[in-house]
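Data deposition worksheet. Section B asks for the primary sequence of the deposited chain exactly as it was used as input, without tags or linkers unless they were present during the calculation. Section C holds the resulting structure in token form. Section D is free text for depositor observations; keep each observation to a single sentence. Incomplete worksheets are returned to the depositor.
Section A, Depositor: J.P.
Section B:
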Amino acid sequence: MPIIIIKARPGKTTAEQALELIDAHPDGISIRELCVTLNRPVSMIQICLKAALTAGRITAIQEGMSLVYCLKSERIGKNKD
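Section C:
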């Protein structure tokens, strides 16, 4: 049986989709909600979030036992109020 190499489909990357989803939730969104909505495994979402956190694009807020992710600018705006 020959090996078939598939090509990536055009469109937004998982990281871009995750950032758009985080942007759509100004109060923040959990990693579980991101995984369910994007239909991606936790490991993939964690890689995307880690890169965005390192780049300073998002921030993680501890809420109870879980982390909630929101855009950095939105979090800064909440601190000023």
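Section D:
Residues 54 and 71 are 13 Å apart (CA to CA).
The first strand starts at residue 29 and ends at 30.
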